[in-house]
Amino acid sequence: MEKILALLKSRGVSKQDIIECVYFLQKQYHDSLTSEKIIYYVDSVLNKREVKNAIYTGIALDVAVEKKILDNKELEAIISNDDGLYGVDEVLAYGICNLYGSIALTNFGYIDKMKPGIIGKLNRAEHTSACHTFLDDIVGAIAAAAASKLAHDKE
Amino acid sequence: MEKILALLKSRGVSKQDIIECVYFLQKQYHDSLTSEKIIYYVDSVLNKREVKNAIYTGIALDVAVEKKILDNKELEAIISNDDGLYGVDEVLAYGICNLYGSIALTNFGYIDKMKPGIIGKLNRAEHTSACHTFLDDIVGAIAAAAASKLAHDKE
Amino acid sequence: MEKILALLKSRGVSKQDIIECVYFLQKQYHDSLTSEKIIYYVDSVLNKREVKNAIYTGIALDVAVEKKILDNKELEAIISNDDGLYGVDEVLAYGICNLYGSIALTNFGYIDKMKPGIIGKLNRAEHTSACHTFLDDIVGAIAAAAASKLAHDKE
Amino acid sequence: MEKILALLKSRGVSKQDIIECVYFLQKQYHDSLTSEKIIYYVDSVLNKREVKNAIYTGIALDVAVEKKILDNKELEAIISNDDGLYGVDEVLAYGICNLYGSIALTNFGYIDKMKPGIIGKLNRAEHTSACHTFLDDIVGAIAAAAASKLAHDKE
């Protein structure tokens, strides 16, 4: 898991950033929700093979667009501008959420609109130099998945 | 489509209620968004066979729970209480949203948390007499689907 | 889990039937694949809350259709005839498969067309007396999910 | 649509190849199923924005892996070898199928295992020179989607 955390860090996302997103989603349902408790669920999500592959693939696309190395320049422009109707970034995010059930999907839809913390920051980043089209959805999906697992375990 | 509208009406949901949910989701992206325009998209969603089947099935379950005619009394209690971790109501809703792409799913997650208009009303209804566990998600899904189609057509 | 196994048994499906479906999906990838090994994965799938809820709900619909107690007689006829375009039975099945990743979905599509063992038997059952429209897809989804988990653990 | 057909052609897939995959999926349900009839449905699928974006993105990843230009060399190896547990290629394919309902998903699972025509050819291609990890699933998804739309229209 160190590798995936290092990759996220290199793209501007710390584990603490993800923890804060989970806290945003779950705080109202818990009297005392600590970072220590949330970490367990974030780690669990990040350790899953299909989650890792989705993260690697999404970030690879973001980086390729930043470096302008894709053959398809029209696609590069669509991803670079984070076109609201592109949709493939959300498809990858749902590939993560689906593994954690229907509550994870609902959580994702909510956090994707509210854009708390790091998600808003990635979304507002200057599109000319950096591309986080996949990353902001991936972070939302990781948080939504961890929050769903936390909710299921609570009961 | 008259039949499906009559069924929704008999369960407390008018076409105008759904239009208001679509408006809630789309107002910020349009300068002038009229009911007339939204109606076209709501009708289009309600006319789709798989959407109709999901509506019929979800409402049939709500009604069966109200009438207490299911064999499985434990399941009846779970649905009657709208247990947050039940999940099958959202699965049916996603069956509708998926037909309209990833934006519909995101819209659904958002509206399901915000519970505007009729969705909040259904959700707050007295659980001892009425059961709207499937219906509130179905209405959210119809609105999310119509809003997604509207967004795609706008461009 | 005893309760869910008893319910499946009462509808004509034994644990051994499910094991054979998993074997059908995985035999070509393993030199020696025993029932003992497969049982672990079937149990694991059947113990998951969202899986249980999908099973309970699908069977409740099958039983309600058999007993002819649904208000909506048109829906009752569609489910009773296992109309190929109904689709809600598969939506419920995907609610199970999605939890086990994309390989589970592919496995489901394959087993749903091939209809080995108990799935074919349920599918061919006399529609006038029994209704297994949801059950055959649910059994396929359980087997597809268990096979997917087995494949992921093998590596 | 000429652009997407040209792109597919440049990767070894003709419209006729896709038509044959649809025929494979639907022949048993029709007395007389002609290429002319199938073309309408293939065109309709290929004209959908979200389908186009999934095709563009999947092929961009295949090409980037062939050219060895991705930063993440581990991911490059996983995609290049078409690792059965990678899963993101299927996630993209489901992003297409979901738009066409649950029957499209079942069709995809079946065709992905049977690998008729072009799908088998892409799958057997020498992995050292060409990468079709995303393309074979994308072609399967286009065919599954077109077959599902054809089945719905038939009734």
Tag the structure with descriptive keywords.
155 residues; 0% strand; elongated; homotetramer; 9 helices; mainly alpha; 72% helix
Descriptive report:
Four copies of one chain form a homotetramer. Chain A has 155 residues and is mostly helical. Chain A contains nine helices and no strands. The first copy, chain A, has helices spanning 2-10, 15-26, 35-46, 49-66, 73-80, 88-97, 102-114, 117-124, 133-154. The longest helix of chain A is centred in the C-terminal third of the chain and has 22 residues, at 133-154.
Biggest interface goes to: A-D, 27 and 27 residues
Sequence of secondary-structure elements of chain A: HHHHHHHHH
Give the structural class of chain A. Answer: mainly alpha
Taking pLDDT < 50 over at least 5 consecutive residues as the criterion, the unreliable ranges of chain A are none
Average pLDDT rating of chain A: 95
State the helical fraction of chain A: over 70%
What's the structural blueprint in terms of helices and strands?
The structure is a homotetramer of 155-residue chains.
Chain A: H1 2-10, H2 15-26, H3 35-46, H4 49-66, H5 73-80, H6 88-97, H7 102-114, H8 117-124, H9 133-154
Helix pairs in contact in A: 2-3, 2-9, 3-9, 4-6, 4-9, 6-9, 7-9, 8-9
